[in-house]
Amino acid sequence: MDRKDEHVSLAKGFHKIKENSFDHVRVIHDSLPQSAYHQTSIATELFGQRLTSPFFINAMTGGSEKTAGINQKLAILARETKLMLATGSISAALRDPSVAHSYQIVREVFPEGILLANIGAGSTLEDAKRGVDLFNANALQIHLNAPQELVMPEGDRDFTQWLRLIEEITTNLDVPVIVKEVGFGMSRQTMQRLLDVGVKTIDVAGSGGTSFTQIENARRRKREFSYLSDFGITTVASLLEANEIPMNFELIASGGIRHTYDIFKALCLGANAVGISASILNHLLVNELEDTIALVQQWQQELISLYTLVGAKTTADLKQVPLLLSGENKTWCEARGIDFTKYSQR
What's the mean per-residue pLDDT of the chain? Predict the structure, then answer.
Protein backbone atom coordinates (compact mmCIF):
# COMPACT_ATOMS: atom_id res chain seq x y z
CA MET A 1 0.00 0.00 0.00
CA ASP A 2 1.19 3.52 -0.79
CA ARG A 3 2.50 5.23 2.39
CA LYS A 4 0.09 8.16 1.99
CA ASP A 5 -2.85 5.77 1.62
CA GLU A 6 -1.59 3.79 4.60
CA HIS A 7 -1.51 6.96 6.72
CA VAL A 8 -5.15 7.70 5.86
CA SER A 9 -6.21 4.13 6.60
CA LEU A 10 -4.40 4.03 9.95
CA ALA A 11 -5.61 7.49 10.95
CA LYS A 12 -9.18 6.37 10.32
CA GLY A 13 -8.61 3.12 12.23
CA PHE A 14 -7.12 4.84 15.27
CA HIS A 15 -9.57 7.76 15.32
CA LYS A 16 -11.87 7.87 18.30
CA ILE A 17 -13.53 10.58 20.35
CA LYS A 18 -11.62 10.66 23.60
CA GLU A 19 -11.06 12.94 26.54
CA ASN A 20 -8.31 15.50 26.06
CA SER A 21 -6.95 18.73 27.56
CA PHE A 22 -9.89 20.83 26.35
CA ASP A 23 -12.15 18.96 28.79
CA HIS A 24 -10.20 20.61 31.63
CA VAL A 25 -10.97 24.14 30.44
CA ARG A 26 -14.24 25.62 31.72
CA VAL A 27 -15.84 28.89 30.68
CA ILE A 28 -16.94 31.07 33.60
CA HIS A 29 -20.51 32.03 32.77
CA ASP A 30 -21.73 35.64 32.63
CA SER A 31 -25.51 35.85 32.99
CA LEU A 32 -25.54 39.33 31.41
CA PRO A 33 -23.50 38.97 28.22
CA GLN A 34 -24.58 42.30 26.62
CA SER A 35 -24.54 40.87 23.10
CA ALA A 36 -26.77 40.06 20.14
CA TYR A 37 -26.53 37.15 17.72
CA HIS A 38 -27.07 39.36 14.65
CA GLN A 39 -24.26 41.72 15.70
CA THR A 40 -21.65 38.96 16.04
CA SER A 41 -18.85 38.24 13.57
CA ILE A 42 -16.79 35.04 13.70
CA ALA A 43 -14.31 36.30 11.10
CA THR A 44 -10.60 36.39 11.87
CA GLU A 45 -7.36 37.37 10.13
CA LEU A 46 -4.13 35.54 9.38
CA PHE A 47 -1.09 36.89 7.49
CA GLY A 48 -3.18 39.77 6.15
CA GLN A 49 -5.96 37.51 4.85
CA ARG A 50 -9.49 37.83 6.17
CA LEU A 51 -11.04 34.45 7.01
CA THR A 52 -14.83 34.37 7.28
CA SER A 53 -14.55 31.57 9.85
CA PRO A 54 -12.01 31.24 12.69
CA PHE A 55 -11.28 27.61 11.80
CA PHE A 56 -9.91 25.94 8.68
CA ILE A 57 -9.13 22.54 7.16
CA ASN A 58 -5.58 21.74 8.22
CA ALA A 59 -2.95 19.66 6.40
CA MET A 60 -3.82 16.01 5.86
CA THR A 61 -3.00 14.22 2.65
CA GLY A 62 -1.99 14.02 -1.01
CA GLY A 63 0.49 12.05 -3.10
CA SER A 64 -1.60 9.19 -4.53
CA GLU A 65 -4.65 8.55 -6.65
CA LYS A 66 -6.77 7.78 -3.59
CA THR A 67 -5.69 10.90 -1.74
CA ALA A 68 -6.33 13.00 -4.84
CA GLY A 69 -9.98 12.03 -4.47
CA ILE A 70 -9.92 13.01 -0.80
CA ASN A 71 -8.30 16.37 -1.58
CA GLN A 72 -10.92 16.99 -4.25
CA LYS A 73 -13.69 16.49 -1.69
CA LEU A 74 -11.89 18.63 0.88
CA ALA A 75 -11.57 21.41 -1.69
CA ILE A 76 -15.30 21.21 -2.45
CA LEU A 77 -15.98 21.34 1.28
CA ALA A 78 -13.73 24.38 1.65
CA ARG A 79 -15.33 26.10 -1.34
CA GLU A 80 -18.89 25.52 -0.16
CA THR A 81 -18.16 26.69 3.40
CA LYS A 82 -15.57 29.38 2.53
CA LEU A 83 -12.83 27.79 4.65
CA MET A 84 -9.07 28.09 4.24
CA LEU A 85 -7.54 24.75 3.22
CA ALA A 86 -4.07 23.22 3.61
CA THR A 87 -2.88 20.19 1.68
CA GLY A 88 -0.74 17.46 3.15
CA SER A 89 3.02 17.49 2.64
CA ILE A 90 3.86 18.11 -1.02
CA SER A 91 7.20 16.26 -0.72
CA ALA A 92 5.78 13.36 -2.73
CA ALA A 93 5.11 15.67 -5.68
CA LEU A 94 8.61 17.14 -5.48
CA ARG A 95 10.05 13.63 -5.77
CA ASP A 96 7.56 12.36 -8.32
CA PRO A 97 5.81 14.91 -10.58
CA SER A 98 3.29 12.24 -11.64
CA VAL A 99 1.45 12.70 -8.31
CA ALA A 100 1.43 16.51 -8.46
CA HIS A 101 -2.22 16.55 -9.52
CA SER A 102 -3.26 15.09 -6.15
CA TYR A 103 -2.35 18.52 -4.73
CA GLN A 104 -3.10 20.76 -7.71
CA ILE A 105 -6.69 19.56 -7.71
CA VAL A 106 -7.46 21.80 -4.72
CA ARG A 107 -6.75 24.91 -6.81
CA GLU A 108 -8.72 23.54 -9.75
CA VAL A 109 -11.75 22.97 -7.54
CA PHE A 110 -11.39 26.16 -5.46
CA PRO A 111 -9.60 28.70 -7.71
CA GLU A 112 -10.41 31.70 -5.48
CA GLY A 113 -9.64 29.91 -2.20
CA ILE A 114 -6.99 30.65 0.41
CA LEU A 115 -4.85 27.54 0.03
CA LEU A 116 -1.73 26.45 1.92
CA ALA A 117 1.04 24.18 0.70
CA ASN A 118 2.86 22.03 3.25
CA ILE A 119 6.50 20.96 3.33
CA GLY A 120 8.87 19.31 5.80
CA ALA A 121 11.28 21.26 7.99
CA GLY A 122 14.29 19.70 6.27
CA SER A 123 13.31 21.18 2.91
CA THR A 124 15.36 23.77 1.02
CA LEU A 125 14.30 27.21 -0.13
CA GLU A 126 14.14 25.88 -3.69
CA ASP A 127 11.80 23.09 -2.58
CA ALA A 128 9.65 25.63 -0.75
CA LYS A 129 9.35 27.78 -3.88
CA ARG A 130 8.44 24.73 -5.98
CA GLY A 131 5.84 23.75 -3.39
CA VAL A 132 4.19 27.17 -3.49
CA ASP A 133 4.28 27.23 -7.30
CA LEU A 134 2.71 23.75 -7.47
CA PHE A 135 -0.78 25.20 -7.08
CA ASN A 136 -0.14 28.91 -6.50
CA ALA A 137 -0.44 28.58 -2.73
CA ASN A 138 -1.28 31.67 -0.68
CA ALA A 139 1.07 30.62 2.14
CA LEU A 140 3.43 27.81 3.09
CA GLN A 141 3.27 25.54 6.12
CA ILE A 142 6.57 24.06 7.31
CA HIS A 143 5.88 21.05 9.52
CA LEU A 144 7.98 19.85 12.46
CA ASN A 145 7.71 16.11 13.07
CA ALA A 146 10.89 14.79 14.68
CA PRO A 147 9.12 12.08 16.76
CA GLN A 148 7.29 10.82 13.69
CA GLU A 149 10.48 10.72 11.62
CA LEU A 150 12.32 8.73 14.28
CA VAL A 151 9.55 6.13 14.59
CA MET A 152 8.96 5.99 10.82
CA PRO A 153 11.01 3.09 9.41
CA GLU A 154 12.16 5.19 6.44
CA GLY A 155 12.19 8.52 8.31
CA ASP A 156 14.89 11.16 8.67
CA ARG A 157 17.43 10.93 11.46
CA ASP A 158 19.26 14.27 11.17
CA PHE A 159 17.48 17.45 12.29
CA THR A 160 20.52 19.69 12.73
CA GLN A 161 19.68 21.96 9.79
CA TRP A 162 15.98 22.45 10.44
CA LEU A 163 16.15 25.85 12.13
CA ARG A 164 18.63 27.22 9.60
CA LEU A 165 16.45 26.10 6.68
CA ILE A 166 13.33 27.56 8.30
CA GLU A 167 15.10 30.89 8.68
CA GLU A 168 16.25 30.83 5.04
CA ILE A 169 12.75 30.06 3.77
CA THR A 170 11.06 32.59 6.05
CA THR A 171 13.47 35.32 5.01
CA ASN A 172 13.34 34.71 1.26
CA LEU A 173 9.95 33.25 0.34
CA ASP A 174 7.46 35.59 -1.33
CA VAL A 175 4.44 34.23 0.57
CA PRO A 176 3.78 34.02 4.34
CA VAL A 177 5.24 31.09 6.26
CA ILE A 178 3.52 29.12 9.01
CA VAL A 179 5.60 26.74 11.13
CA LYS A 180 3.50 23.94 12.56
CA GLU A 181 3.87 20.80 14.61
CA VAL A 182 2.05 17.62 13.60
CA GLY A 183 0.53 16.66 16.94
CA PHE A 184 3.37 16.91 19.46
CA GLY A 185 2.87 20.51 20.61
CA MET A 186 5.38 23.27 21.31
CA SER A 187 7.01 24.74 24.39
CA ARG A 188 7.58 28.48 24.78
CA GLN A 189 11.31 27.87 24.23
CA THR A 190 10.66 26.26 20.85
CA MET A 191 8.31 29.05 19.80
CA GLN A 192 10.79 31.70 20.91
CA ARG A 193 13.54 30.15 18.77
CA LEU A 194 11.21 30.25 15.77
CA LEU A 195 10.27 33.86 16.43
CA ASP A 196 13.94 34.75 16.75
CA VAL A 197 14.61 33.64 13.16
CA GLY A 198 11.71 35.63 11.76
CA VAL A 199 8.72 33.30 11.94
CA LYS A 200 5.50 35.28 12.44
CA THR A 201 2.82 32.57 12.46
CA ILE A 202 2.99 29.39 14.57
CA ASP A 203 0.60 26.43 14.69
CA VAL A 204 1.24 24.63 17.99
CA ALA A 205 -0.55 21.42 16.81
CA GLY A 206 -0.54 19.70 20.19
CA SER A 207 -1.18 16.15 21.31
CA GLY A 208 -4.68 14.93 22.01
CA GLY A 209 -5.79 13.98 18.52
CA THR A 210 -4.10 11.93 15.79
CA SER A 211 -0.82 10.41 16.99
CA PHE A 212 1.73 10.02 14.21
CA THR A 213 4.02 8.05 16.49
CA GLN A 214 1.17 5.56 16.91
CA ILE A 215 0.57 5.48 13.16
CA GLU A 216 4.24 5.03 12.26
CA ASN A 217 4.74 2.41 14.96
CA ALA A 218 1.86 0.43 13.45
CA ARG A 219 3.78 0.43 10.16
CA ARG A 220 6.89 -1.11 11.75
CA ARG A 221 7.53 -4.84 11.63
CA LYS A 222 8.56 -4.66 15.29
CA ARG A 223 6.49 -2.15 17.25
CA GLU A 224 9.13 -0.92 19.68
CA PHE A 225 7.72 2.56 20.23
CA SER A 226 4.24 1.95 21.63
CA TYR A 227 5.19 4.02 24.69
CA LEU A 228 5.36 7.13 22.46
CA SER A 229 1.73 6.91 21.34
CA ASP A 230 0.74 9.78 23.65
CA PHE A 231 4.06 11.65 23.42
CA GLY A 232 4.06 15.43 23.30
CA ILE A 233 2.63 18.61 24.79
CA THR A 234 -1.15 18.97 24.67
CA THR A 235 -2.79 21.67 22.60
CA VAL A 236 -4.05 23.53 25.65
CA ALA A 237 -0.64 23.41 27.34
CA SER A 238 0.98 24.65 24.12
CA LEU A 239 -1.42 27.61 24.01
CA LEU A 240 -0.66 28.39 27.65
CA GLU A 241 3.05 28.27 26.81
CA ALA A 242 2.51 30.63 23.86
CA ASN A 243 0.75 33.16 26.08
CA GLU A 244 3.90 33.44 28.21
CA ILE A 245 5.93 34.84 25.30
CA PRO A 246 6.24 38.67 25.47
CA MET A 247 6.05 39.11 21.70
CA ASN A 248 3.17 39.57 19.31
CA PHE A 249 2.76 36.80 16.76
CA GLU A 250 -0.06 34.95 15.05
CA LEU A 251 -1.07 31.81 16.89
CA ILE A 252 -2.89 28.83 15.42
CA ALA A 253 -4.26 25.99 17.53
CA SER A 254 -4.70 22.46 16.21
CA GLY A 255 -4.53 18.94 17.55
CA GLY A 256 -7.46 17.11 19.13
CA ILE A 257 -10.15 19.55 17.97
CA ARG A 258 -13.30 17.45 18.18
CA HIS A 259 -16.18 19.91 17.87
CA THR A 260 -17.30 23.52 18.07
CA TYR A 261 -16.69 23.89 21.77
CA ASP A 262 -13.02 22.92 21.36
CA ILE A 263 -12.66 25.54 18.61
CA PHE A 264 -14.25 28.10 20.90
CA LYS A 265 -12.04 27.26 23.88
CA ALA A 266 -8.88 27.41 21.74
CA LEU A 267 -9.86 30.89 20.58
CA CYS A 268 -10.50 31.94 24.20
CA LEU A 269 -6.99 30.70 25.00
CA GLY A 270 -5.49 33.11 22.51
CA ALA A 271 -5.52 31.38 19.13
CA ASN A 272 -6.15 33.60 16.11
CA ALA A 273 -7.46 30.59 14.19
CA VAL A 274 -7.99 26.86 14.68
CA GLY A 275 -6.96 24.08 12.30
CA ILE A 276 -8.97 20.86 12.10
CA SER A 277 -7.86 17.64 10.43
CA ALA A 278 -9.00 14.27 11.79
CA SER A 279 -12.52 15.28 12.84
CA ILE A 280 -13.27 16.53 9.33
CA LEU A 281 -11.45 13.73 7.50
CA ASN A 282 -13.12 10.94 9.43
CA HIS A 283 -16.57 12.46 9.03
CA LEU A 284 -15.92 12.76 5.31
CA LEU A 285 -14.71 9.16 5.03
CA VAL A 286 -17.84 7.68 6.62
CA ASN A 287 -20.49 10.13 5.40
CA GLU A 288 -21.55 11.81 2.19
CA LEU A 289 -19.79 15.04 1.23
CA GLU A 290 -23.08 16.92 1.60
CA ASP A 291 -23.33 15.73 5.21
CA THR A 292 -19.84 17.03 6.00
CA ILE A 293 -20.67 20.38 4.39
CA ALA A 294 -23.76 20.53 6.61
CA LEU A 295 -21.65 19.70 9.68
CA VAL A 296 -19.19 22.52 9.01
CA GLN A 297 -22.05 24.96 8.41
CA GLN A 298 -23.54 23.82 11.72
CA TRP A 299 -20.23 24.54 13.45
CA GLN A 300 -20.20 28.04 11.96
CA GLN A 301 -23.68 28.75 13.27
CA GLU A 302 -22.89 27.26 16.67
CA LEU A 303 -19.86 29.52 16.98
CA ILE A 304 -22.00 32.60 16.50
CA SER A 305 -24.15 31.36 19.39
CA LEU A 306 -21.11 30.70 21.59
CA TYR A 307 -19.65 34.14 20.86
CA THR A 308 -23.02 35.67 21.78
CA LEU A 309 -23.18 33.59 24.97
CA VAL A 310 -20.02 35.23 26.33
CA GLY A 311 -20.67 38.72 25.00
CA ALA A 312 -18.03 38.60 22.27
CA LYS A 313 -18.80 40.57 19.12
CA THR A 314 -15.54 39.57 17.42
CA THR A 315 -12.99 36.75 17.58
CA ALA A 316 -10.50 39.06 19.29
CA ASP A 317 -12.99 39.64 22.12
CA LEU A 318 -12.76 35.98 23.12
CA LYS A 319 -9.31 36.55 24.61
CA GLN A 320 -11.03 38.36 27.48
CA VAL A 321 -13.39 35.50 28.37
CA PRO A 322 -12.66 34.20 31.92
CA LEU A 323 -11.64 30.55 32.06
CA LEU A 324 -11.09 28.01 34.82
CA LEU A 325 -8.19 25.60 34.25
CA SER A 326 -8.15 22.28 36.08
CA GLY A 327 -6.69 18.79 35.95
CA GLU A 328 -3.67 18.32 33.70
CA ASN A 329 -3.80 21.97 32.58
CA LYS A 330 -3.45 23.22 36.15
CA THR A 331 -0.69 20.69 36.83
CA TRP A 332 1.19 21.83 33.72
CA CYS A 333 0.95 25.48 34.78
CA GLU A 334 2.22 24.74 38.26
CA ALA A 335 5.16 22.75 36.93
CA ARG A 336 6.06 25.34 34.29
CA GLY A 337 5.65 28.46 36.44
CA ILE A 338 2.54 29.75 34.65
CA ASP A 339 -0.01 31.73 36.68
CA PHE A 340 -3.18 29.86 35.74
CA THR A 341 -5.33 32.06 38.00
CA LYS A 342 -4.98 35.04 35.65
CA TYR A 343 -7.33 33.33 33.20
CA SER A 344 -10.16 33.28 35.74
CA GLN A 345 -9.60 36.96 36.64
CA ARG A 346 -10.16 38.37 33.16
Answer: 92
CATH class of the domain whose range is 3-23+49-289: alpha beta
Please tell me the distance from the alpha carbon of residue 140 to that of residue 176, in angstroms, as a whole number: 6
Annotate 231-267 with b (16+ C-beta within 10 A) or e (fewer): bbbbbbbbbbbbeeeeeeebbbbbbbbbebbbbbbbb
Q: How confident is the model at residue 17 (pLDDT cuts 50, 70, 90)?
A: low
pLDDT digit string (tens) for 45-102? 999 999 999 999 999 999 999 999 999 999 999 999 999 999 999 999 999 999 999 9
Residue 9's pLDDT is 46
Domain definitions of the chain by residue range: 3-23+49-289
The β-bridge partners of 62 are none
Distance, in Å, from the CA atom of 42 to the CA atom of 306, rounded to the nearest integer, reads 10
**CB neighbours of residue 329 within 10 Å:** 25
Binding residues: 3-4, 59-61, 89, 118, 148-149, 180, 210, 256-258, 277-278
Phi-psi region of 200 (alpha: psi -120 to 50; beta: other; left: phi over 0): alpha
Q: Model pTM?
A: 0.92
Pair 238, 270: CB distance under 8 Å: no
Query: Could you tell me which residues are annotated as the binding site for FMN?
Result: 59-61, 89, 118, 180, 210, 256-258, 277-278
